[in-house]
Amino acid sequence: MQTTTRRTMLGALGAAAMGTRGQGATPERPNILFIYTDDHSYRTLSCYEEAYPWVKTPNIDKLAREGVRFTAAYNGAWCMPSRATMLTGHFQHAVESMTMEGSYPGSSYDPAKCPFWPKELRKHGYTTAQIGKWHTGTDTGFGRDWDFQIVWNRPKYPETSTHYYYDQPITYQGGKTEILKRYSTDQYTDWAVDFMRGKGREANKPWYLWLCFGAVHAPYTPAERHMKELAGIDLDTPKDIFPPRPGKPDWAQKIEQWKKDANGKPVAGGKSFIEWVRQYHQGVLALDEAVKRLMDTLEETGQRKNTVVVFTSDQGLAFGQHGFRGVKIAAYDANVRSPLIFSQPGRIPQGKVCRTPVTGADIVSTMLKFTGMKEPWEMHGHDLSPLLNNPEAKWDHPAMLVATGQTYGSDTNTIPVGAKVMHANVPWYVMIRDRRYKYIRPLMHDLEELYDLQTDPDELANLVAKPEHKERLKRMRAQLIAELRRTKCGFVDRMPAVREA
């Protein structure tokens, strides 16, 4: 008699418990597991070339080998606008009625003016679920956008807004709220596993699960089991951690978040640069373990081939680069560039890398395409299927990022004088890039920036004043204006003049 493995037994039990194998999903109309991490730089994953040599994330690496990894995704400048894009398919300047109010991160929106697409996905026959961090208005949309929801409603409870890992007020299915004492990364994963195994959903429907981890946001608290990991690591100090920063705009010269110790080494908040980087990377280890548990569950329940897995983060995080310490916001790759992986065996090629930069709005359009649902309104993204099928395919859509601080929709039509309204003194800006070059325009009277990311991946040499790049600068300015007009940006004709180099 052939021995039955534990995985085979679990798969059979899972399929029997939930009825139809695959829970109503098919390869052509799949489930979607959307894994969304927080302040999580691409540099912390060993499948990315830019990671430090001691970084090891074997489970996320495995997911990358089983799909297509994008080298550059720009999902937003910080947590809230990035999530707003993922819910609406719009860049920040078109997320209408979203506003900050009360104590940070208090916020609100009008669902009639700012509809979220999971509501339409429910009409399309999907069960929709969201687990983890919520950071887009105090109204989490349970019963309207979500059939299933277990969330830390961060805007509703500002007094616990820093509780990323323990002691979170968790709201269950729009009802009771209880304090979570367990490490959040582990608990969110448990809830997701339960949902994928059938808890809280109909067996005959495909599902969409947006799993929003709090890691690896400040205070970068690792799980206790990882506190001693990565001992003895070493790394070079970023070249422009201290000013001056030749060629950069005036605002960038004022970033001084690190001090020099007696030996000239960078320190901040009582810790050395290496200690901060180590702690940040320790916090990623539980995320890597979570990915293993999630993928094992899909395999064990027979859902892997019928599930698209998307892995990304709201944005990146700079540690030392350009003088920043644990800061996103700025348009540099160190600050805002996210990892991005798509995987579905049999439908998405495996082990491929796409070097075309993409946006968070593109991710939304692509997920909708996978479900077979038409976009419920005019969205800003482009379906990435051509790049998933052939990562070297011609792509005529530059990646744009619009950063307008804590202001959204038509409230951005008038640019504040100076536009110095974002964290760390970073001004409002708009950014656009192609496979090789990035152009940044500040929405204040300051210097533009142009970088060749092939020869200068650290964005140290601003080319804006170089005569040989004059035509490229004009071309990228025009591309940016065209994208702003395409997305009906209200401030496109009101941008302040830039300072000549």
What does this structure look like?
With 501 residues, the chain is an alpha/beta fold. The protein has a single domain (23-391), classed as Alkaline Phosphatase, subunit A. It contains eleven helices and 22 strands. The protein has helices at residues 6-18, 58-65, 79-88, 118-123, 184-196, 250-253, 273-300, 333-336, 360-371, 385-389, 470-486; strands at residues 31-37, 68-74, 99-100, 107-108, 127-134, 148-153, 168-172, 177-180, 207-212, 259-260, 266-268, 271-272, 307-313, 318-319, 325-327, 337-343, 352-354, 358-359, 399-403, 429-433, 437-442, 449-452. The strands form five sheets. Strands 1, 2, 5, 6, 7, 8, 9, 13, 16, 17 and 18 form an eleven-stranded mixed sheet that branches. Strand 10 (259-260) and strand 11 (266-268) form a beta hairpin. Helix 5 (184-196) runs parallel beside helix 7. The longest helix has 28 residues, at 273-300.
In brief, what are we looking at here?
By secondary structure, the protein is of the alpha/beta class. The chain has helices at 6-18, 58-65, 79-88, 118-123, 184-196, 250-253, 273-300, 333-336, 360-371, 385-389, 470-486; strands spanning 31-37, 68-74, 99-100, 107-108, 127-134, 148-153, 168-172, 177-180, 207-212, 259-260, 266-268, 271-272, 307-313, 318-319, 325-327, 337-343, 352-354, 358-359, 399-403, 429-433, 437-442, 449-452.
Instruction: Decide which structural class fits the backbone.
Output: alpha/beta
CATH superfamily: Alkaline Phosphatase, subunit A
What's the rounded overall pLDDT mean? 94
The overall strand count is 22
Our count of helices gives 11
User: Fraction of residues in helices?
Assistant: 10-25%
C-alpha termini separation: 78 Å
Radius of gyration: 22 Å
- What is the percentage of strand-forming residues? 15-25%
- Tell me the domain tally: 1
Low-confidence stretches: 1-23
CATH architecture: 3-Layer(aba) Sandwich
Per the principal axes of the C-alpha atoms, what is the gross shape?
A: globular
CATH class: Alpha Beta
Note the main sheet: 11 strands, mixed
